Amino acid sequence: MKKSDARLISRGLDGSLSPEERQRMDALLAASAEARATRQAWEALGDGVRDHAARHPAPDPALAWQDIRREIRRLDAERQDAPDAGWLFRFRVAGAVAALVVIGLLGLSAWRLLEGPGASSFAATPLSERVEWVIAEVPGASTMIYTDPETELTVIWMDIAQIHDPRDS
Which one of 50, 119, 147, 160 is separated from 22 by 20 to 30 angstroms, measured CA to CA? Predict the structure, then answer.
């Protein structure tokens, strides 16, 4: 069945057809068994809805809101009385994170032990040995690199000569 025929039947059941449309619907119902079955099914559906509405009238909106609020309060009270199950999940997550940290530390320790004492490591190299070069792009600057004995930090010192700029006069 076409959508336009279904719309025509629906509008006919609503009683909103012009006389010409009413004739078209009557001709459609006379010619099509599917259209007659659709109209009968929709009439039965409408009768059922009207019958249900007559047996169960709609409640007063204010009373309906009172029922909704009462149910919300009841659910809140149940939720407050129930034990918190979230702590178990958080405990499991914390345990998993702690286990991963321990496994990581054990793996790192085993790797360092297997590497042996004679293996070279970037972290074991003193800072002064790691500095390969320093380029000073300041004209007339001299660079000094040394390790401070107190802090054991590598110091890169640039001595910049005081050049007299004629524009400063």
Answer: 50
Which pair of tokens denotes residue 84? Answer: 């918190």
The residue assigned the tokens 């004679």 is 118
Which is it for strands 141-147 and 154-160: parallel, antiparallel or unpaired? antiparallel
Q: How many helices (H) and strands (E) does the chain have?
A: 6, 2
Q: Where are the alpha helices (DSSP H) in 56-168?
A: 61-81, 86-115, 127-130
**CB neighbour list of residue 6: distance below 8 Å, 6 or more residues apart:** 38
Report angle CA 106, 110, 115 to the nearest 5 degrees: 150
CB-CB contact of 12 with 25 (8 Å): yes
The two structure tokens encoding residue 71: 């149910």
| Exposure class string for 62-87: b at 16+ Cβ within 10 A, else e | eeeeeeeeeeeeeeeeeeeeeeeeee
Q: Which residue, 13, 49, 15, is CA-closest to 29?
A: 13
User: Residue 154: beta bridge partners?
Assistant: 147
To which H or E segment does residue 8 belong? helix 3-14
- Full-model pTM: 0.36
Say which residue, 127 or 28, is predicted with more confidence: 28
- Amino acid identity, position 162: Q
